[in-house]
Design goal:
The chain has about 250 residues and is α+β, with helices and mostly antiparallel strands. The protein is built from 4 helices and 16 strands. The strands form 4 sheets. Strands 1, 2, 3, 4 and 5 form a 5-stranded antiparallel beta sheet that branches. Strand 12 and strand 13 form a beta hairpin. About 25% of the residues are buried. The mean pLDDT is about 80. One of its GO terms (biological process) is regulation of TOR signaling.
Length: about 250
Amino acid sequence: IGSISLNPSGDGTPYILVAQAGGTYISFQCCDVQDEDADGSVGLKMTTPVHHPLASSRMRSRIVTSEILGGLHGTYNGEPCDSLIVVATLDGTLMLVHGDETLWSFQVDHQLFSIAKLDLNDDGEEEVIACAWDGQTYMVNQRKQSVRFQFEDSVSAFTAGKYGVSPSNNMPALIYVTYNNRIYVYYDIMLPSFPIRSFLEKTEQHPETSTLLSQFPIDSNNKRHLADLYSFCLYGIPSDLMENEEAEVQADT
């Protein structure tokens, strides 16, 4: 068994997630029916455990340890979702999962031992924060875009979240505990431009783009035509094309 986490279901009943060796996990659903034990104590009744053999887990060792984190806020099939799951393995695999479906898999060359979630750009979608024993830290958004940095020391424990750095002021923070009995807190961690967008994507978001493109005899839905147009506007006619045109003119004369 690796770590244990909670994940909400469609009806609001929580699932208990238990990480298993090899990058798989088991889920238990907590029922509303209360079950009285022999000693008179009352607790929630548990359903039969369900094993989730993720497809990518077949390609790795079954003895490698795993970590799991549920309740990740994001989107699934274009709809808001608060039940995404993150699975990390000691051999450096990070997976975003929904049920039995692996949405993406991210491979690194460091041993991941701790994962957390944090909204780094305040857009409502939580990013995955993964830390390795040697201090290498990865921040991965739900589009599989990543940022990483090297913490200065080996890490024995790691977490991330919003913590009260000052009274009544919770800030996004990364917290490291080292083997030298030191605790490091990095707070006010924000990445306002975390998503990586191409020039074409940025221009599509501009309100005047469609109006300006209508003045040119091109198909605005053709990415290749748009790229050629923007290249001409930014850099002019390529030198090799100019030489070819000059050669054709000389040949005609």
